[in-house]
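INFO  loader      accepted 1 record
INFO  loader      residues=262
INFO  predictor   begin
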Amino acid sequence: MFEIFQYSFMVRALLAGGIIGIIAPLIGVFLVSKRYSLMADSLAHVSLAGIALGLLLGIYPIYTAIVVTIVVALVIERLRSQQHVSGELALAMFVSGGLAVAVVLISLGNGFNVDLLSYLFGSITTVTAQDVIVMSILGLLIVGLMAFLYQQLIYLSFDEEAALVSGVPVRRLNTILMILTAITVSVAMRVVGVLLIGALMVIPVVTASQLRRSFRQTILFAVLFSLIAILVGLFGAFYLSIPAGGAIVVVSLVLFFVSLLL
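INFO  predictor   done
INFO  writer      dumping tokens
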């Protein structure tokens, strides 16, 4: 069973998966609390355009995905806060728009290739040492900022109007949360893929919420369920030769249904 650790690509995948398993539900718990859980899916579709742009220009795709996704996240938040359109409509527009831009860029690059498909569905064999280093640095940044802003983010998540009246910098916090969401979506693509990252940010949080614990305990349980799903999913992907991203999300769903039964 432990021969999996003899393969360097699996060690890198487990390290990357552990990082994603922590930061994805950590961001997701605040998105779910704000009823903004579709943000991850919307930004995932946009990040695909960033990946296609990077492959087209010959730039490390995660860098272009992060830049493009952050810009769009800020635009969505601006539209929502200025009340030009509702948050739901803004998300719907960018889901379609991001996918459309990605399709155009892909066609300019002569169609799909192996690299792009690995970002689309996730691939444990393509996680590189550079991916792990980038994920580690960004993961530490995200965890540090979330810990520093924890109390304010809780207030913001449950009652944005009351937080604004109390002097909490609501606009700045929303901007930071959107940026961190964009970064998380971009770095998680290597492990679970563009199409499934939204599920990893939401399902463990919903599972943890079934336990009816405090907010802090919900975060801890969400991270625990996420790490279990990633560990079991990666082992399943290795030994059963199935897609890692799909396996991780299926395990997350199983944990959710078990939590309902309990």
